[in-house]
Amino acid sequence: MDRPDPLDDLDDLARELRTSVGGEFRRWAEEDEYAARKTQLRSRTLEHIAHELLSRGDAVAVTLGSTVLHGTVVHAKGDLMALETRRGDRIDLRLGGPLTIRVVARSSDGGRGRDVAEPGSFVARLLELELDEVPVMLTPAPGSDTVTGVIEAVAEDHLMVTGDDGETTYIAMSNVVAVTRR
Known about the structure:
Elements: H1 6-43, H2 46-56, E1 59-64, E2 67-77, E3 80-84, E4 90-94, E5 100-105, H3 122-132, E6 135-140, E7 147-154, E8 158-162, E9 168-172, E10 176-181
């Protein structure tokens, strides 16, 4: 009568232990990887997102209430993100404003890096436009009318804008979401 070889039993046991323990280690590694990814996602800001979109060169849609702007991110730094539309318009957005950003097309060409000569904040962009004395269109938070004219002064908490009709409008800085050169 043939007796089972005890070494075969040990081989089977070793194989079973390797499979069981290996699977458990894999599950732990997957859980750790998932937790690390969640922590990384939770620590990002809109500035990080805008810089990533700049680097990738993706086409995006930015929703400001009922207005949807389409373009490619051409600058991102601090609370400032600049879009270039298909028509060639440049729209500067305040990332702290009530907006939604959505990727509409992934780029296969890649994006670009930050331009150090560009301003580092939305207020810095407004100050540039004040100094250039160019006509602009200010897009306020949803529910308010756009304001057009020349920025006369960028104050601490508001903008002073002189319209084409010569009338002065004061708009709260916190209410301005985007600015476009006209």
